[in-house]
Protein backbone atom coordinates (compact mmCIF):
# COMPACT_ATOMS: atom_id res chain seq x y z
CA UNK A 1 0.00 0.00 0.00
CA UNK A 2 2.94 2.31 0.65
CA UNK A 3 4.26 1.66 -2.85
CA UNK A 4 0.81 2.25 -4.33
CA UNK A 5 0.34 5.57 -2.52
CA UNK A 6 3.77 6.84 -3.56
CA UNK A 7 3.05 5.89 -7.19
CA UNK A 8 -0.34 7.60 -7.11
CA UNK A 9 1.03 10.79 -5.54
CA UNK A 10 3.79 10.98 -8.14
CA UNK A 11 1.32 10.17 -10.90
CA UNK A 12 -1.18 12.87 -9.96
CA UNK A 13 1.57 15.48 -9.57
CA UNK A 14 2.98 14.53 -12.97
CA UNK A 15 -0.48 14.89 -14.53
CA UNK A 16 -1.13 18.21 -12.77
CA UNK A 17 2.15 19.80 -13.89
CA UNK A 18 2.49 18.10 -17.29
CA UNK A 19 3.42 20.43 -20.15
CA UNK A 20 3.77 17.72 -22.79
CA UNK A 21 2.32 14.33 -23.58
CA UNK A 22 5.43 12.50 -22.31
CA UNK A 23 5.03 13.63 -18.69
CA UNK A 24 1.27 13.15 -18.90
CA UNK A 25 1.80 9.57 -20.12
CA UNK A 26 4.35 8.85 -17.39
CA UNK A 27 1.93 10.16 -14.78
CA UNK A 28 -0.85 7.97 -16.13
CA UNK A 29 1.46 4.93 -16.09
CA UNK A 30 2.32 5.49 -12.43
CA UNK A 31 -1.37 5.96 -11.63
CA UNK A 32 -2.23 2.76 -13.44
CA UNK A 33 0.41 0.83 -11.52
CA UNK A 34 -0.64 2.31 -8.18
CA UNK A 35 -4.37 1.78 -8.67
CA UNK A 36 -3.83 -1.72 -10.05
CA UNK A 37 -1.73 -2.67 -7.04
CA UNK A 38 -4.06 -1.29 -4.40
CA UNK A 39 -7.24 -2.60 -6.05
CA UNK A 40 -6.39 -6.12 -4.83
CA UNK A 41 -4.23 -5.45 -1.77
CA UNK A 42 -6.83 -3.36 0.08
CA UNK A 43 -9.69 -5.91 -0.18
CA UNK A 44 -7.30 -8.67 0.95
CA UNK A 45 -6.11 -6.60 3.92
CA UNK A 46 -9.67 -5.72 4.97
CA UNK A 47 -10.76 -9.37 4.68
CA UNK A 48 -7.81 -10.54 6.78
CA UNK A 49 -8.33 -8.15 9.69
CA UNK A 50 -12.14 -8.19 10.06
CA UNK A 51 -14.30 -10.80 11.88
CA UNK A 52 -16.45 -13.08 9.73
CA UNK A 53 -19.77 -11.54 10.80
CA UNK A 54 -18.82 -8.08 9.50
CA UNK A 55 -16.31 -8.93 6.77
CA UNK A 56 -18.63 -8.32 3.80
CA UNK A 57 -19.77 -4.92 5.04
CA UNK A 58 -16.26 -3.76 5.89
CA UNK A 59 -14.92 -5.03 2.56
CA UNK A 60 -17.63 -3.23 0.62
CA UNK A 61 -16.82 0.00 2.46
CA UNK A 62 -13.85 0.10 0.09
CA UNK A 63 -16.33 0.18 -2.81
CA UNK A 64 -18.38 2.87 -1.03
CA UNK A 65 -15.36 5.13 -0.75
CA UNK A 66 -14.50 4.52 -4.40
CA UNK A 67 -18.06 5.51 -5.35
CA UNK A 68 -17.77 8.56 -3.09
CA UNK A 69 -14.56 9.54 -4.87
CA UNK A 70 -16.14 9.07 -8.30
CA UNK A 71 -19.18 11.10 -7.23
CA UNK A 72 -16.96 13.85 -5.87
CA UNK A 73 -15.07 14.03 -9.16
CA UNK A 74 -18.34 14.13 -11.13
CA UNK A 75 -19.50 17.10 -9.02
CA UNK A 76 -16.23 19.03 -8.80
CA UNK A 77 -15.43 18.35 -12.47
CA UNK A 78 -18.17 20.82 -13.36
CA UNK A 79 -16.37 23.63 -11.55
CA UNK A 80 -12.60 22.97 -11.54
CA UNK A 81 -9.91 22.69 -14.19
CA UNK A 82 -8.53 19.18 -14.72
CA UNK A 83 -5.11 20.20 -13.35
CA UNK A 84 -6.77 21.31 -10.12
CA UNK A 85 -8.63 17.99 -9.95
CA UNK A 86 -5.33 16.14 -10.33
CA UNK A 87 -3.82 18.06 -7.41
CA UNK A 88 -6.90 17.42 -5.28
CA UNK A 89 -6.69 13.71 -6.10
CA UNK A 90 -3.18 13.53 -4.63
CA UNK A 91 -4.46 14.60 -1.20
CA UNK A 92 -6.26 11.32 -0.25
CA UNK A 93 -3.17 9.37 -1.36
CA UNK A 94 -0.97 11.45 0.94
CA UNK A 95 -3.44 11.05 3.81
CA UNK A 96 -3.49 7.27 3.40
CA UNK A 97 0.31 7.15 3.19
CA UNK A 98 0.50 8.86 6.59
CA UNK A 99 -2.25 6.65 7.99
CA UNK A 100 -0.36 3.47 7.06
CA UNK A 101 2.12 4.19 9.86
CA UNK A 102 -0.67 3.72 12.40
CA UNK A 103 -2.41 0.53 11.20
CA UNK A 104 -1.36 -3.03 12.14
CA UNK A 105 -0.02 -5.69 9.80
CA UNK A 106 -2.38 -8.47 8.73
CA UNK A 107 -2.53 -11.30 11.34
CA UNK A 108 -2.31 -13.94 8.59
CA UNK A 109 0.79 -12.30 7.12
CA UNK A 110 2.40 -12.31 10.58
CA UNK A 111 1.53 -16.00 11.02
CA UNK A 112 3.00 -16.83 7.61
CA UNK A 113 6.35 -15.40 8.71
CA UNK A 114 6.29 -16.98 12.18
CA UNK A 115 5.80 -13.76 14.14
CA UNK A 116 3.44 -15.37 16.65
CA UNK A 117 3.79 -12.82 19.44
CA UNK A 118 2.98 -9.94 17.09
CA UNK A 119 0.08 -12.00 15.74
CA UNK A 120 -1.56 -12.20 19.17
CA UNK A 121 -0.87 -8.53 19.93
CA UNK A 122 -2.42 -7.52 16.60
CA UNK A 123 -5.50 -9.72 17.09
CA UNK A 124 -5.99 -8.25 20.57
CA UNK A 125 -5.74 -4.75 19.12
CA UNK A 126 -8.23 -5.59 16.36
CA UNK A 127 -10.75 -7.55 18.46
CA UNK A 128 -10.46 -5.71 21.78
CA UNK A 129 -8.94 -6.51 25.17
CA UNK A 130 -11.98 -8.49 26.35
CA UNK A 131 -12.08 -10.80 23.31
CA UNK A 132 -10.51 -14.27 23.58
CA UNK A 133 -8.22 -14.39 20.56
CA UNK A 134 -6.52 -17.73 21.31
CA UNK A 135 -8.92 -19.87 19.26
CA UNK A 136 -8.76 -17.55 16.26
CA UNK A 137 -4.97 -17.32 16.49
CA UNK A 138 -4.68 -21.12 16.63
CA UNK A 139 -6.95 -21.51 13.60
CA UNK A 140 -4.91 -18.99 11.62
CA UNK A 141 -1.63 -20.73 12.54
CA UNK A 142 -3.04 -24.14 11.61
CA UNK A 143 -4.22 -23.02 8.18
CA UNK A 144 -0.99 -21.15 7.46
CA UNK A 145 1.07 -24.17 8.52
CA UNK A 146 -0.90 -26.45 6.20
CA UNK A 147 -0.44 -24.04 3.30
CA UNK A 148 3.29 -23.78 4.06
CA UNK A 149 3.65 -27.44 3.12
CA UNK A 150 2.69 -26.41 -0.40
CA UNK A 151 5.40 -24.52 -2.23
CA UNK A 152 4.73 -20.92 -3.13
CA UNK A 153 3.22 -21.18 -6.59
CA UNK A 154 4.17 -19.19 -9.66
CA UNK A 155 1.72 -18.13 -12.35
CA UNK A 156 2.58 -21.15 -14.53
CA UNK A 157 2.21 -23.56 -11.60
CA UNK A 158 -1.34 -22.39 -10.86
CA UNK A 159 -2.70 -24.00 -14.00
CA UNK A 160 -1.10 -27.34 -13.09
CA UNK A 161 -2.47 -27.41 -9.53
CA UNK A 162 -5.69 -29.40 -9.80
CA UNK A 163 -7.11 -28.02 -6.55
CA UNK A 164 -6.35 -24.42 -7.48
CA UNK A 165 -7.95 -24.54 -10.92
CA UNK A 166 -11.57 -24.05 -9.72
CA UNK A 167 -10.47 -20.96 -7.78
CA UNK A 168 -8.74 -19.53 -10.84
CA UNK A 169 -11.85 -20.18 -12.93
CA UNK A 170 -14.01 -18.38 -10.34
CA UNK A 171 -11.56 -15.48 -10.07
CA UNK A 172 -10.96 -14.93 -13.77
CA UNK A 173 -14.62 -15.58 -14.54
CA UNK A 174 -15.84 -12.94 -12.11
CA UNK A 175 -13.40 -10.36 -13.47
CA UNK A 176 -14.32 -11.23 -17.05
CA UNK A 177 -18.07 -10.85 -16.53
CA UNK A 178 -17.55 -7.74 -14.37
CA UNK A 179 -15.75 -5.89 -17.15
CA UNK A 180 -17.77 -7.30 -20.05
CA UNK A 181 -20.94 -6.01 -18.44
CA UNK A 182 -19.91 -2.75 -20.12
CA UNK A 183 -19.79 -0.64 -16.98
CA UNK A 184 -16.29 0.72 -17.65
CA UNK A 185 -17.33 1.89 -21.12
CA UNK A 186 -20.53 3.49 -19.81
CA UNK A 187 -18.61 5.37 -17.10
CA UNK A 188 -15.88 6.49 -19.51
CA UNK A 189 -18.32 7.69 -22.19
CA UNK A 190 -21.23 8.81 -19.98
CA UNK A 191 -20.96 12.45 -21.06
CA UNK A 192 -21.10 11.68 -24.78
CA UNK A 193 -23.96 9.20 -24.26
CA UNK A 194 -26.05 11.83 -22.46
CA UNK A 195 -25.18 14.41 -25.11
CA UNK A 196 -26.33 12.17 -27.98
CA UNK A 197 -29.57 11.50 -26.10
CA UNK A 198 -30.24 15.24 -25.93
CA UNK A 199 -29.93 15.16 -22.13
CA UNK A 200 -27.91 17.89 -20.31
CA UNK A 201 -24.47 16.45 -19.56
CA UNK A 202 -24.09 18.17 -16.17
CA UNK A 203 -27.46 16.90 -14.95
CA UNK A 204 -26.80 13.39 -16.27
CA UNK A 205 -23.39 12.99 -14.63
CA UNK A 206 -24.74 14.52 -11.41
CA UNK A 207 -27.55 11.95 -11.31
CA UNK A 208 -25.04 9.15 -11.87
CA UNK A 209 -22.92 10.49 -9.03
CA UNK A 210 -25.96 10.78 -6.77
CA UNK A 211 -27.01 7.12 -7.14
CA UNK A 212 -23.58 5.59 -6.48
CA UNK A 213 -23.21 6.37 -2.78
CA UNK A 214 -26.73 5.36 -1.57
CA UNK A 215 -26.49 2.08 -3.50
CA UNK A 216 -23.14 1.28 -1.86
CA UNK A 217 -24.56 2.02 1.59
CA UNK A 218 -27.44 -0.39 0.92
CA UNK A 219 -24.94 -3.14 0.08
CA UNK A 220 -22.89 -2.51 3.22
CA UNK A 221 -26.04 -2.93 5.32
CA UNK A 222 -27.22 -6.09 3.53
CA UNK A 223 -24.19 -8.05 2.27
CA UNK A 224 -23.59 -9.89 5.56
CA UNK A 225 -27.32 -10.53 5.99
CA UNK A 226 -28.32 -11.59 2.48
CA UNK A 227 -24.97 -12.98 1.31
CA UNK A 228 -22.77 -12.41 -1.73
CA UNK A 229 -24.55 -14.66 -4.22
CA UNK A 230 -28.04 -13.07 -3.97
CA UNK A 231 -26.60 -9.58 -4.47
CA UNK A 232 -24.46 -10.74 -7.40
CA UNK A 233 -27.48 -12.42 -9.01
CA UNK A 234 -29.69 -9.36 -8.47
CA UNK A 235 -26.96 -7.12 -9.88
CA UNK A 236 -26.49 -9.32 -12.96
CA UNK A 237 -30.23 -9.50 -13.66
CA UNK A 238 -30.56 -5.71 -13.37
CA UNK A 239 -27.52 -5.05 -15.58
CA UNK A 240 -28.87 -7.53 -18.16
CA UNK A 241 -32.24 -5.76 -18.35
CA UNK A 242 -30.76 -2.25 -18.39
CA UNK A 243 -28.24 -3.13 -21.11
CA UNK A 244 -31.14 -4.47 -23.17
CA UNK A 245 -33.07 -1.20 -22.65
CA UNK A 246 -30.07 0.84 -23.83
CA UNK A 247 -29.68 -1.38 -26.88
CA UNK A 248 -33.40 -1.11 -27.59
CA UNK A 249 -33.24 2.69 -27.41
CA UNK A 250 -30.51 2.73 -30.07
CA UNK A 251 -32.37 0.15 -32.16
CA UNK A 252 -35.55 2.27 -32.22
CA UNK A 253 -33.69 5.55 -32.79
CA UNK A 254 -34.18 7.09 -36.22
CA UNK A 255 -31.05 8.68 -37.77
CA UNK A 256 -30.78 12.44 -37.21
CA UNK A 257 -33.68 12.59 -34.72
CA UNK A 258 -33.90 12.75 -30.95
CA UNK A 259 -37.01 10.78 -30.00
CA UNK A 260 -38.50 11.15 -26.53
CA UNK A 261 -39.18 7.45 -25.95
CA UNK A 262 -35.67 6.51 -27.05
CA UNK A 263 -34.11 9.16 -24.81
CA UNK A 264 -36.17 7.94 -21.84
CA UNK A 265 -35.14 4.32 -22.46
CA UNK A 266 -31.50 5.40 -22.75
CA UNK A 267 -31.46 7.52 -19.58
CA UNK A 268 -33.33 4.90 -17.53
CA UNK A 269 -31.03 2.20 -18.89
CA UNK A 270 -27.82 4.10 -18.11
CA UNK A 271 -28.84 5.10 -14.57
CA UNK A 272 -30.24 1.62 -13.89
CA UNK A 273 -27.11 -0.04 -15.25
CA UNK A 274 -24.85 2.00 -12.98
CA UNK A 275 -27.12 1.39 -9.96
CA UNK A 276 -27.40 -2.38 -10.42
CA UNK A 277 -23.70 -2.72 -11.21
CA UNK A 278 -22.86 -0.89 -8.00
CA UNK A 279 -24.84 -3.25 -5.72
CA UNK A 280 -23.01 -6.39 -6.81
CA UNK A 281 -20.76 -6.72 -9.83
CA UNK A 282 -18.90 -3.50 -9.01
CA UNK A 283 -17.38 -4.52 -5.68
CA UNK A 284 -18.33 -8.07 -4.70
CA UNK A 285 -15.94 -9.83 -7.13
CA UNK A 286 -13.07 -8.12 -5.28
CA UNK A 287 -14.57 -9.14 -1.93
CA UNK A 288 -14.81 -12.77 -3.04
CA UNK A 289 -11.26 -12.68 -4.46
CA UNK A 290 -9.96 -11.58 -1.08
CA UNK A 291 -11.70 -14.52 0.60
CA UNK A 292 -11.12 -17.62 -1.54
CA UNK A 293 -7.36 -17.79 -2.20
CA UNK A 294 -5.12 -19.55 0.40
CA UNK A 295 -1.88 -17.87 1.41
CA UNK A 296 0.37 -20.05 -0.76
CA UNK A 297 -1.41 -18.93 -3.95
CA UNK A 298 -2.80 -15.58 -2.79
CA UNK A 299 -0.02 -13.44 -4.27
CA UNK A 300 0.25 -15.15 -7.65
CA UNK A 301 -3.46 -15.88 -8.10
CA UNK A 302 -4.43 -12.41 -6.90
CA UNK A 303 -1.91 -10.79 -9.23
CA UNK A 304 -3.17 -12.83 -12.17
CA UNK A 305 -6.79 -11.95 -11.46
CA UNK A 306 -6.03 -8.25 -10.93
CA UNK A 307 -3.98 -7.91 -14.12
CA UNK A 308 -6.71 -9.77 -16.01
CA UNK A 309 -9.36 -7.43 -14.65
CA UNK A 310 -7.57 -4.30 -15.81
CA UNK A 311 -6.72 -5.92 -19.15
CA UNK A 312 -10.39 -6.78 -19.71
CA UNK A 313 -11.29 -3.20 -18.75
CA UNK A 314 -8.81 -1.83 -21.29
CA UNK A 315 -10.19 -4.12 -24.01
CA UNK A 316 -13.75 -2.91 -23.37
CA UNK A 317 -12.89 0.80 -23.24
CA UNK A 318 -10.56 0.62 -26.26
CA UNK A 319 -13.00 -1.35 -28.42
CA UNK A 320 -16.13 0.57 -27.36
CA UNK A 321 -15.83 3.28 -30.02
CA UNK A 322 -15.30 0.71 -32.76
CA UNK A 323 -18.23 -1.47 -31.71
CA UNK A 324 -20.48 1.59 -31.38
CA UNK A 325 -19.59 2.58 -34.95
CA UNK A 326 -20.38 -0.98 -36.04
CA UNK A 327 -23.72 -1.09 -34.20
CA UNK A 328 -24.72 0.90 -31.12
CA UNK A 329 -27.68 -1.34 -30.39
CA UNK A 330 -25.63 -4.48 -31.08
CA UNK A 331 -22.97 -3.36 -28.59
CA UNK A 332 -25.44 -3.16 -25.72
CA UNK A 333 -27.28 -6.30 -26.76
CA UNK A 334 -23.90 -8.07 -26.45
CA UNK A 335 -23.45 -6.59 -22.96
CA UNK A 336 -26.94 -7.83 -22.10
CA UNK A 337 -26.10 -11.30 -23.40
CA UNK A 338 -22.90 -11.42 -21.35
CA UNK A 339 -24.89 -10.46 -18.24
CA UNK A 340 -27.29 -13.32 -18.96
CA UNK A 341 -24.33 -15.71 -19.05
CA UNK A 342 -23.12 -14.08 -15.82
CA UNK A 343 -26.32 -15.12 -14.04
CA UNK A 344 -25.71 -18.76 -15.02
CA UNK A 345 -22.01 -18.56 -14.08
CA UNK A 346 -22.75 -17.17 -10.61
CA UNK A 347 -25.58 -19.64 -10.00
CA UNK A 348 -23.43 -22.67 -10.84
CA UNK A 349 -19.87 -21.80 -9.79
CA UNK A 350 -19.61 -18.90 -7.34
CA UNK A 351 -19.67 -20.04 -3.68
CA UNK A 352 -21.39 -18.27 -0.80
CA UNK A 353 -18.81 -16.97 1.69
CA UNK A 354 -21.12 -15.18 4.12
CA UNK A 355 -20.63 -15.90 7.82
CA UNK A 356 -17.54 -18.11 7.48
CA UNK A 357 -13.95 -17.44 8.49
CA UNK A 358 -11.34 -17.25 5.76
CA UNK A 359 -9.95 -20.54 7.03
CA UNK A 360 -13.35 -22.25 6.72
CA UNK A 361 -13.88 -20.84 3.22
CA UNK A 362 -10.47 -21.89 1.97
CA UNK A 363 -10.67 -25.33 3.58
CA UNK A 364 -13.91 -26.02 1.74
CA UNK A 365 -12.60 -24.78 -1.62
CA UNK A 366 -8.96 -25.84 -1.60
CA UNK A 367 -7.87 -29.29 -0.40
CA UNK A 368 -4.17 -29.23 0.43
CA UNK A 369 -2.20 -32.37 -0.28
TrEMBL record:
GO terms for molecular function: sugar transmembrane transporter activity. It comes from the Eukaryota. It is a multi-pass membrane protein. It is found in: Cell membrane. Keywords: Cell membrane, Membrane, Sugar transport, Transmembrane, Transmembrane helix, Transport. Residues 1-354 form the Major facilitator superfamily (MFS) profile domain. The keyword Transmembrane helix applies. The keyword tRNA-binding does not apply. Pfam families: Sugar_tr (PF00083). The chain crosses the membrane at residues 28-46, 58-76, 82-103, 167-191, 203-223, 230-252, 264-287, 299-320, 332-350. Its main location: membrane. One of its GO terms (cellular component) is plasma membrane. Belongs to the major facilitator superfamily. Sugar transporter (TC 2.A.1.1) family. This is Sugar transporter ERD6-like 2 isoform X4. It comes from Raphanus sativus (Radish).
Amino acid sequence: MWISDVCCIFGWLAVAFAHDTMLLTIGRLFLGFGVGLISYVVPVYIAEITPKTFRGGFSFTNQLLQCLGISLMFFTGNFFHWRTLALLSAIPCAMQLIGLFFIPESPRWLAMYGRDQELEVTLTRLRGENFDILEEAAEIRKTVEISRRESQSGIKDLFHMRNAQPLIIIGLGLMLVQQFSGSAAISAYAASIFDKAGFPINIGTTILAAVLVPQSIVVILTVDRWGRRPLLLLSSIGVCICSFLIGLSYYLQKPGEVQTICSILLIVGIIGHVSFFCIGLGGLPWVIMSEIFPVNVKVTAGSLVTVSSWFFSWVIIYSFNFTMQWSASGTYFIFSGVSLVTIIFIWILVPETKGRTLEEIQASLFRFS
